[in-house]
């Protein structure tokens, strides 16, 4: 048995593989092994050390932050900086998993800054809009 580390979608797995040696007397029929018979054990991938950069908080321009509830793509921005919004007004449309999600203003206020544009990709927690 030989052990190998295999990375699939960013996850590292340790797998054991049996080495089959050919004999000179002829061919050997080998029963195939199904995936469920393989032993895959997730292992910890080495942590990458990236230098931390101090960036000013986007909330510095506004007191209320609207962040992305899920990863997706911005389909449309319905407001402009300086617009007054009421609680429940649609601020932008976020597409996630082929569904359009309306991101609404959590309270009444004025849009201070917009941190995304149409077509941009966002991750969960990314700041979309700040408002006062």
UniProtKB/TrEMBL annotation:
Residues 52-132 form the Lipoyl-binding domain. InterPro entries: Biotin_BS, Biotin_Carboxyl_Carrier/Decarb, Biotin_lipoyl, Single_hybrid_motif. It comes from the Bacteria. Pfam families: Biotin_lipoyl. Keywords: Biotin. Residues 40-65 are annotated as: Disordered. This is Biotin/lipoyl attachment domain-containing protein. It comes from Thermoanaerobacter kivui. The lineage of its organism: Bacteria, Bacillati, Bacillota, Clostridia, Thermoanaerobacterales.
């Amino acid at each position: 048995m030989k052990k190998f580390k295999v990375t699939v979608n960013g996850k590292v797995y340790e797998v054991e593989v049996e080495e089959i040696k050919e004999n000179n007397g002829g061919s050997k029929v080998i029963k195939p092994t199904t995936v469920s018979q393989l032993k895959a054990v997730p292992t910890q991938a080495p942590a990458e050390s990236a230098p931390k950069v101090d960036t000013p908080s986007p909330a510095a321009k506004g007191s209320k932050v609207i962040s992305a509830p899920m990863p997706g793509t911005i389909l449309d921005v319905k407001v402009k900086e300086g617009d007054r919004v009421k609680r429940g007004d649609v601020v932008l449309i976020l597409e996630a998993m082929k569904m359009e999600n309306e991101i609404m203003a959590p309270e009444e206020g004025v849009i201070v800054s917009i941190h995304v544009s149409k077509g941009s990709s966002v991750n969960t927690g990314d700041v979309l809009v700040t408002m006062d």
